[in-house]
Design brief:
This protein has 284 residues and is of the alpha/beta class. The chain has eight helices and seven strands; from the N terminus they run αβαββααβαβαβααβ.
């Protein structure tokens, strides 16, 4: 009698999968995958064509967003520095301004140079001279600070604060000095134009007296020869100046107080040999 062997309904050599998809479902997935790839390809080609042929006209649809700038004080970097960008901040006294104004008349050019001489009070003299800086009276806030030797040094140190708070337009540099300081303005513009006024700069020179350098500091710009502060440094200095005046009340001069405060900011002195501080000691 013959026996018929039963055939298995699956191939024992094949491992069963986790799940099996119908044939139609696989075709649908394959179709969707091809369409997605085609869509990505078309989108990429369209983007390349748009950026190539329409980039020159895109500003008329999406105008550039303006960058914030310092209002009325910051100019385009491409414009070179000139005398109009410098504000002279001169410390003086009502008692001596009549005589010492002769020094300012040597270099001051009306309607060209900009700046003020800051006095402790209004002058009683009716004498006027249009060839010197206009007179301003220092704000009375300086009287509340203590001092050890020179009270006027506190007021003159705050001249930079009074000057910055004027918020005059198009100022790049604040040049400090005394009422007997003489400037060669063409040379000054030439020096300052080499520096980026948008950065913090403290520019000046030492005293030509070794005794004064040793007594004060070789890293300090002496006020008698004048020194320059860029606008960003001046703004930062003014924001912390009053605290510095309290901490360094025992210093003698205004320039030493300014130097101490700038040292706290971390800006070193940039020496320029054109700033001359000369001290003559004579005996009679």
């Amino acid at each position: 009698m013959s026996q018929t062997r039963l055939q298995p309904n699956h191939d024992p050599a094949k491992k069963p999968g986790l799940f099996a998809l119908p044939e139609k479902t696989c075709e649908v997935i394959s179709y969707l995958t091809r369409m997605s790839l085609l869509f990505c390809l078309i989108s990429s080609i369209s983007l390349v064509l748009y950026t190539t042929f329409f980039s020159s006209n895109q500003t008329q649809f999406w105008p550039p967003f303006p960058h914030p700038t310092r209002i009325e004080t910051q100019l385009r970097s491409s414009q070179p520095t000139n005398i109009f960008h410098i504000l002279f901040c001169i410390g003086g006294s009502a008692a001596t301004w009549h005589d010492r104004s002769r020094y300012s008349s040597i270099w001051w050019v009306p309607n060209v140079t900009r700046g003020f001489v800051w006095l402790d009070q209004e002058t009683n003299s009716t004498w006027t001279n249009n060839n010197v800086p206009a007179v301003m009276v220092s704000s009375p806030e300086w009287t509340r600070f203590k001092f050890s030797s020179s009270r006027s040094a506190v007021r003159i140190a705050r001249v930079i604060s009074d000057s910055v708070k004027l918020r005059l337009p198009r100022v790049r540099w604040f040049v400090m000095g005394d009422d007997d300081t003489v400037y060669y303005t063409d040379n000054l513009v030439s020096v300052l134009s080499r520096y980026d006024h948008n950065q913090m700069w403290y520019i000046g020179g030492n005293s030509e007296s070794v005794e004064q350098d040793v007594m004060h500091s070789y890293d300090m710009a002496f006020g008698g020869g004048g020194f320059a502060l860029s606008y960003p440094l001046a703004e930062r200095l003014v924001s912390m100046l009053d605290g510095c005046l309290d901490r360094y009340y025992y210093f003698y001069g205004s320039d030493q107080r300014i130097w101490a405060c700038i040292s706290e900011i971390g800006v070193p002195l940039t020496r320029e040999p054109g700033f001359h501080q000369v001290r003559f000691c004579t005996s009679f």
